Amino acid sequence: xxxxxxxxxxxxxxxxxxxxxxxxxxxxxxxxxxxxxxxxxxxxxxxxxxxxxxxxxxxxxxxxxxxxxxxxxxxxxxxxxxxxxxxxxxxxxxxxxxxxxxxxxxxxxxxxxxxxxxxxxxxxxxxxxxxxxxxxxxxxxxxxxxxxxxxxxxxxxxxxxxxxxx
Length: 166
What we know:
Strand content: 5-15%
Helix content: 25-40%
Number of helices: 5
Number of domains: 2
Radius of gyration: 16 Å
Order of helices and strands: EEHEEEHHHH
CATH superfamily of the largest domain: Beta-grasp domain
CATH class of the largest domain: Alpha Beta
């Protein structure tokens, strides 16, 4: 059965650089539109209350809880999911650093951490450890891997600076 057939009027979302149409209620959380209608499963459901960061996506470059952001509020805005940051062959530096350092344990929070870290590094390619901790403050890691994740983000920042010749 086509998830987008029938139902409410279509809503157009700009996701990962492409216009995508979904048929869902205006109040539907972005998380459900991404996972259930667009098949983008990288964004995780954590708490459903906008408290844990597992569902972070970037909206116009800013980390945003997708579990409590209604689709109606995204008109004219760019949504970037973990799938939009790279591929397995060309992964984002934060994703690479987390994998290479084995910073994650269970991995449930990682897509949200990557999104928050990517937003930070887009604005500041040389953050201090305190700045990384502040940027990841809204990401709950139930496994206690926060220190390793912070270290991986600092490694990614250094890699990004080296690639840019800074």
